[in-house]
Write a structure and sequence with these properties.
The chain is of the alpha/beta class and 406 residues long. The protein is 42% helix and 10% strand. It has 15 helices and eight strands. The strands form two sheets. The protein has a six-stranded mixed beta sheet, with helices on both faces. It has a two-stranded antiparallel ribbon with strand order 1-2. Strand 1 and strand 2 form a beta hairpin. Helix 10 runs parallel beside helix 11. The protein starts with 30 loop residues before the first strand and ends with a helix.
Length: 406
């Protein structure tokens, strides 16, 4: 790592508050050991010394602004980084937010906090950025035609059916589901035939149907462009997403599906002649299991030409995750090298993030994960991932403040 992650090019100036008060006559009052060295005013007509006002402690939004500036000013020639923000400035950025309603409150809060931070960056610097939720799509997006919007709504309704019997009724009664792009009745007939030979019960068949519908929904999935999403609206939207996902209790954890979709997206980009450098940032606290690892590793094996043009950076909030699940993420991270190495995981403590925020070093790594030299760098100690001191709150700077500061 060398000195690259210890000496940024320059540090943003902090707001300074004078420790010495000055009275109206211009006489400074010295402070010693936290108290005034009061002059002898016996018989004097001088005004009494002014009351001591302790130095102002920077608020969380000011501290975060200073950290933003450090990210911008970060420079390290040995790893090819001229500015910590250049990695995203010239790329398309997709942020995937875990909307699993079963996540602990502090995990959800940490994900929301970092998501808002990324959105502020995206809006202030006008990144080509989209925000997605893992299980909730923007069916009102103007990027969907009216007929595609109808199909997306029908698929969502089918996906939310609680039982196979309810789903069967909708498949038979909803003409939209017979569209040539969906062909669900044809799939349903084959499944019914398979049930007769494999002896699947209704619950097992329903699970298979949900998995099939989840893939069918993918071409209609839309996110929110950063220019169309206000930071102050994000909290309500995130709550709306978690409420919607909770409508289908059999499919609350979508992290495996999201990673697979990101890898499939890389494959589609690689085949296109006009492919654009792309960064996918995933924020999650949901577990992965052994079967998930096998599916993801299989998909990773099909990746070609990815490392310097496409990256998946997963921010894994670990405080409430079991060790085997964390280890699976590490295995996926270390599974391939070279052009197939498009996945990187940063293990974070939600408690530390909510207490101190992310350090500029951690953000540089997130923003430049498509740079193989940055991807290979390791932190000297876990504490380097977080800010140097408690934020004292979770207030974030506004977009306008950030624009004016960077």
């Amino acid at each position: 790592m060398g000195n690259c992650f210890s000496t940024p090019r320059k540090e943003a100036p902090r707001h300074k508050v004078m420790a010495n008060a000055v009275n109206g006559a211009g006489t400074s009052q010295a402070i010693s050991n936290g108290t005034f060295d009061k002059p002898d005013t016996t018989g004097s007509t001088q005004d009494p010394p002014p009351r001591y006002v302790p130095p102002e402690v920077p608020t969380s939004d000011i501290m975060i602004l200073q950290m933003f500036k450090k990210v911008q000013d970060f420079c390290c020639d040995s790893i090819g980084v001229k500015s910590g923000l250049n990695g995203l400035r010239h790329q398309t950025v997709y942020v995937w937010v875990d909307d699993n309603p079963k996540l602990p409150p502090e995990t959800t809060e940490a994900i929301e906090f970092v998501s808002k931070m990324l959105l502020i960056f995206g809006k202030a610097l006008e990144f080509n950025m989209k925000i997605y939720f893992m299980g909730y799509s923007n069916n009102n997006s103007n990027e969907l035609s009216e007929d595609k919007r109808e199909r997306a709504a029908a698929l969502r309704n089918l996906f939310e059916k609680k039982t196979y019997h309810e789903a069967t009724g909708m498949i038979k009664g909803e003409p939209i589901l017979s569209h040539e792009d969906l062909q669900i009745p044809a799939w349903f007939e084959k499944m019914e035939e398979s049930r007769r030979t494999s002896r699947l019960n209704d619950d097992e068949t329903h699970t298979k149907l949900l998995a099939h519908v989840q893939w069918l929904r993918e071409p209609y999935r839309q996110g929110w462009r950063q220019e169309d999403l206000k930071v102050e609206d994000f909290s309500n939207l995130y709550k709306e997403a978690r409420t919607a996902v909770n409508q289908q209790p059999k499919k609350l954890n979508n992290i495996c599906f999201t990673i697979q979709q990101a890898i499939a997206f890389q494959q589609r980009l690689q085949k296109g002649a006009d492919a654009q450098a792309t960064s996918v940032i995933i924020l999650t606290g949901s577990p992965l299991f052994g079967r998930d690892a096998k599916a993801i590793k299989r998909d990773q094996g099909q990746v070609t030409g990815g490392a310097d043009e496409f990256s998946i950076q997963t921010l894994l909030f670990c405080d409430n995750l079991e060790r085997p699940s964390i280890e699976i993420h590490r295995q996926i991270d270390n599974n391939f090298k070279g052009d197939k190495d498009i996945y990187d995981v940063s293990e974070l403590s939600e408690r530390k993030v909510l207490d101190c925020g992310l350090s500029e070093i951690q953000l540089v790594k997130i923003f430049n994960s498509s740079n193989p030299a940055v991807d290979r760098l390791k932190f000297r100690k876990d504490g380097d991932k977080y800010g140097p001191c408690p934020l004292g709150g979770l207030d974030l700077p506004s977009v306008e403040q950030t624009k004016g500061y960077l």
